[in-house]
Amino acid sequence: MSSTQTLVCVKQVKQEAVEEWDETMPLPGDIVEGIAEEPNDDLLFVKAKGRSEFSLQLGKVGRRREELWLKVRRGERVLKLRVCVVPERSSKLQKKFTFRAASSDKHVAVLADLTFDQCCELQEMSRRVVKVTPIGFNQKGVKYDWKMKVGTYLPDPRSTVVSSIIFMALATETCAGATTVRAMAWFTAAVSSGIPLVFINIQTEQIINSQNYAATIQISQAIRLWFLPGIEEKLIELKPKHGDLRFGMDIKRTEEGFICVNRVTRGTAADRAGLRQLHEEATRTGHLVVISRLDGKSLMPSQASSAGLIHCCDNANIKETLNSALEDLDSIKLHIMSWPNNARTDHTGRAGAAMLRPPT
Question: Which of 26, 30, 88, 326 measures 20 to 30 Å from 156, CA to CA?
Answer without folding.
Answer: 326
